[in-house]
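FIELD: query
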Amino acid sequence: MNDRFLLFVIYATTPIMLVVGLGVMYLIIGDHPWFLYMAGGYVVLLILLYLTKISLFRTLLKRRESALSQKQDANG
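FIELD: result
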């Protein structure tokens, strides 16, 4: 997986998933009185997923940078 594709997966798919998911939810549920509560819960869950993905991405990026610097120190 190259870096550009990983950035797309991390930063772009969650907002797209949010909009598409809310649209599908509205098509299935419609004007139910509880729709706003269900949609709010869905949004909160996707925000938590987004923050978790960003946190994992930053952690993996730091590990990769430290591994690359150690490799360069060993070679140089």
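FIELD: remark
Residues 35-75 form the longest helix (41 residues).
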